[in-house]
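Hi Q.,

Before the meeting this afternoon, I wanted you to have the farnesyl diphosphate prediction in hand. No need to reply - just skim if you have a minute. The sequence and ligand are here:
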Amino acid sequence: MSNNPLDRVKQQIHEFLLEFDNPFLHTLCSKLNHGKMLRSRLIFAIAGVNDQSVKLCGIVELIQLASLLHDDVIDEAMSRRSSPSLNALFGNKNSIMLGDALYSKAYFHLLSFPESIARSIAHCVCLLSSGEIRDVFLSESFNPSLSEYILMIKEKTASLIASSAKSSALLIGEESEAYYHYGECLGIAFQIIDDILDITQNEETLGKPAMNDFLEGKTTLPYILLYEALGRDERERLKSMHKTPLEAEQKSWLFEQFTKHKIIEKSFEYARDYAQNAVSKLPKGYSEELDDMIRAMIERSY
Ligand code: FPP
Ligand code: MG
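Predicted structure with the ligand bound:
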C-alpha cells in the first residue's frame, strides 16, 4: 500500500462510493478527478494521519466534489482540471444527481463524528450554498462592491477550508476557532489567487478556459480594483465588456489598464495580507506545515 496519505483518502472515497449498489453511479464516478486535495492536506497538517482524519478527509472531499459538480452545471462549464466536465460528458441531470449522492454519502458518514464536528461541517455546507447563490446574483450585472465580493468568497470558497481546519483541531482537542480563522484566511487568499490566475495564465496551465470569470459574469477582485482606478468613461468601457466575448482590441485595452494601474500586484497584496494574517491567532508551536501551506498558496501558478 502507498505511503502517501492522499492515496489513503482516495481509497477511503472509493470505499464510500462502493457502498452504492448502482453500476450507473459507478460509471459516473469513474470520471471524477480529485484535484489538488488542498482540504485533505490541511486536515493532515493539523490532525496528523490516522483512521479518523482519513475519514474526515474523505467526507470533506466528497462535499468538495459535489459542490464542483453543481457549480459546473450552474456555470455551464465544459471543462474542469484539463478534462471534460461531468456535465459535458453525461449531461446536467446526472451531474446534479451524482452531486446529491456524494453529498448525502458524506453526511451519512459525518454522523459517526462528534456533534461539534458534524455541526461545523453541516453549517459550512449551508454557507457554501449561500455563497454560490450570492455568486449567481452578483454575476447578473457588473459588481463594483469589494465587500460583497469578499463576503461571497468567504462563504463560497473559504467556509469549507475553514471548517476542515476547525474540525481537525476538534479531533485533536485544540483551540478550534483559531484554526477556523486560519482556514478562512487561507481560503480567501486561495480564491483571490485563483481569480488572478484566471487573468494571468493560459488555458493549458489552468485546465479550463482563461479569462473566463468576467465572461461568466464574475466581477472578481482584479476587475473591482481596476474599476476603482478608472475614470468615468473608462469605467463605462469596462462595464460594457462584462459578460461579453472580447475582441482582440478590447483584450489588449484591458491588459494595458491592468498593467498601467498595477492591478495584478495590488490583487496579490490583498491575498498576501490575508495569508499573513492567517497564523496570527494560532497557539504557539503550531505545525510548520501551516506556514508552508500559506507560502505555497501565494506562490502557486495553477
Ligand atoms: C467554484 O467556484 C465553486 C465553489 C467553490 C462552491 C460551489 C458551491 C455550491 C454549488 C453549493 C454546493 C452545495 C452542496 C449541497 C454540495 P468558481 O465557479 O468561482 O470556480 P471554478 O472556476 O473552479 O468553477
Ligand atoms: Mg465555476
